[in-house]
Structures are given as C-alpha cells and as structure tokens.
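Changelog-linked ticket: flavin-adenine dinucleotide example.
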Amino acid sequence: MTIVIIGGGASGMAAALAASENPENDVILLERQARLGRKLQATGNGRCNLTNLHAASRGYHGEDASFADFTICAFDPEMTLAWFRSLGLFTVAEPSGRVYPYSDQANSVVDVLRFALEKPNVRVITGYVAEKVKKTADGFHIEGTGQPISCDKLIIACGGLAGSKLGGTMDGYKLLRSLGHKCTKLRPTLVQLKSSWCGCASLKGVRANCKARILRNGETFAESEGELQFTEYGLSGPVIFEISRDVCHGGGSWSCQMDFMPDVSENDLFDALSQRRKTALQASELLTGILHNRLGRVLTQNAGISQQKLITELSDWELLEVCRAVKDFEVTLTEPMGMDSAQVTAGGILTAEFDNRTMESRIRPGLYACGEVLDIDGDCGGYNLQWAWSSGRLAGLHAGGIHDQNT
Ligand SMILES: Cc1cc2nc3c(=O)[nH]c(=O)nc-3n(C[C@H](O)[C@H](O)[C@H](O)COP(=O)(O)OP(=O)(O)OC[C@H]3O[C@@H](n4cnc5c(N)ncnc54)[C@H](O)[C@@H]3O)c2cc1C
C-alpha cells in the first residue's frame, strides 16, 4: 500500500514513522520547504517544549475540544516520551510538566525524527509543494511542484497558518476544502497582544514576573501567572501567550491588569517603601532593588510622582499610589498581533467530519488529517506538539493499516 503524507512537520513525521512500521507499506513524505521540521526547530525558543506531562487531562480548545480526548489518551505524553526514547532522544521534565530535550536544543528532536525516517520503505521529498489533490477510483492523486503522485491513502499534515515565516500556510485548509471539508474561522493564538498604552515602547525588552488578568468590559476573561515581556507594541511572554486565546474578539473593551509582585501584599510593599523614606534618594529610585529599574521608574511615573522628588518628601498617599501601580497596573488592549507572529492557529478544519479514533475523514474514506490543520489548539507549554504527535501517530497507524495495542 502507498501512503502519501503532505507536510513534513511534527505531525507529518510522526505519521510517516507510524505508517512505515509495516515494512510492506510504501511511505512518501512531501515537504514544501528545503528541509523537514523547520517550525519544530524554532519551537520553545529553540529548546522545543515537546510535550507536557499534564496534557492527557486538559488544555485543548476548538468547536469540539473533546475531540482531542481520545487521540491524546491513545498516545499520551508518557507513550510519546517512551517513543522518543526509542528513537534515541533523552528528555527532561520541568516541575511545571513541560518537557524539553536533555540537550536543550530543538535540533535534537528534529534530528532523531529525521534519522528514524531513513528507512527503506520511506521516501522523503523536500521542496515539493502539493498544490492539488483529487480522489480517484482507488485512492488519491497529488499534483504539485514535482512529479504527480498516486497513492492508496493520503494524510494531510500541512499545519496551520500561524508562524508563516517558519512555514505556516493556508495549503492544508485549501487541500482539505477541495476534498469537501469545511473550515472554521481562523484566529491567531499563543500570540502577543497590542496595547494603546504608550509606555510599552519605553519598556521594550523588559521581562517581569507577574500575575496577569485579561478583562473584557471590566470582567475577568482569563488570568495566569508567569513571565511577561514588554514589546514595542504591547505585551508578550509566556503568561500572555497562555491567556491570549480569543482576546479582543467579539467586541467590548479589553484590558490587561498586572500585579508585578503577586506574592507580596500591598501592606507589606507599603511598609517596605516607607522604610526607604530614610534614604536621600530621588523617587526614580523608589523601586530600585525591587523591580527591573526601567519598569520601576515607569510605574512610579505612572503613579503621578515626579522622578526628581526626594523619597523623604513622598506622602503616604503617594506611596500608596506607587503600591497600586505595582500591584494593579492596567493597560488597554487593542488587538492580537497577526498570524505571522502567532505560535498557533485557533480554528481549522471541522473535527466533526473526522473520526478521532483513526483521524480518518468521515466523508472521504482513505483520507486522514492530523496536527494544527484541524480545529484543535492547545495551551502554551507543550500541548500543541503533543497534539501533533498523538494525532500524527494515530493517522499514520490507521492509514498504514497497522493494529497498535495502544490505540
Ligand atoms: C515560534 C513557535 C514556537 C512554538 N513553540 C512550541 C513549543 O515549544 N511547544 C509546542 O507544543 N508547540 C509550539 N509551537 C506550535 C507547534 O510548533 C505547532 O503546533 C506544531 O508544529 C504543529 O504541527 P503540524 O505538523 O500540524 O504543523 P507543522 O509543524 O507546521 O508542519 C507542517 C509542515 O507542512 C509543510 N507544508 C505545508 N503546506 C505544504 C504543501 N502544500 N506541500 C508540502 N508541504 C507543505 C510545512 O512546510 C510544514 O513543514 C510553536 C510554534 C511557533 C511558530
């Protein structure tokens, strides 16, 4: 049997390896870029957060997020790590559940997959852009920038639109739509948020631990705690990615409230700042030693305090204003950054049209889809790659007609 996989990213490589477990299968992996796993190589800031130990129980979204349940359980993080170990990859888990390669290099993940694909029954064709797919009497026919290819089973693993510089395209959605599938609205997620607050640019590059709360019309929409990073246009960093899903969609006024000292009470902070009244420093140094210097100055300024004023001259009321700026700082949000800078696409091909036990299309037997092209996206922290491994493996095993005791 010939199985073609379009897309040599995370889910496509997992699918190809699974389908090739039957040596009688001929597996052809088509990748539009010059090499496999280009996006994978950039994941986790070059470290590749390849899974999360908690991924089996929660963390997925989509019109029917429960679609992911069976798929993730059929090939859960533990099985995924055992599989990677069998490919030669050593990994290490952080207390948060995030798992990284022991080498701390995303390259290691790409390399073990690439090496594993060097098998007699797998043909990898890079630089091949699949442009058209057609259903034929006994399978599928693919046309693209190379020789046309016919196959018995076809797996679409083209990924999503996010991260276009790393290979995010509309191709997967287009190919699946041409075969009769429907697509939801696509939105960027795990993405930076733009703010109209003019202070962002002066804090560009500053990182701070904070508790961030997104408000829609004054009501809490999402919240999380972790590292925030200021950018020229707004807010970024893991804590923002975690709560960025669907922010600024559907109207209303949106803002982000930040507590830069979540583990210190306002009273304790007030006492600590009052102690500083004994020093002969200017207000610009009021938060020195407590927060990042630039952030400290901007927050003091935003509390309405002249930077030149001596700390000895600050009133209790002024110190309270600074405490509030540190613990309850709110900026207006305008929109998320675009797909280019998003890590993941929310939305995708309707999962109702696929069987989550096999990843096979309910309307085109012999056609499979996996990974981000489907309407499933995960939380920040390794959930999206886990979805790619689980759905890719399941698609490969079933397209390859392989009975697996785990699925
Ligand atoms: C900067 C960044 C960092 C990220 N970090 C993490 C992280 O640390 N942990 C995590 O869990 N997730 C992370 N993600 C998300 C994760 O990378 C994706 O969700 C995951 O790669 C999706 O896998 P996929 O196989 O569906 O798609 P991809 O990995 O994007 O692979 C799709 C492949 O298909 C190819 N392709 C597309 N169209 C065609 C065509 N017509 N013909 C041939 N080939 C085609 C593409 O070139 C691409 O190589 C990150 C994403 C980005 C952008």
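Closing comment: Example verified and attached. The domain at 2-187+341-399 is CATH 3.50.50.60 (FAD/NAD(P)-binding domain). Residues 383-399 form the longest helix (17 residues).
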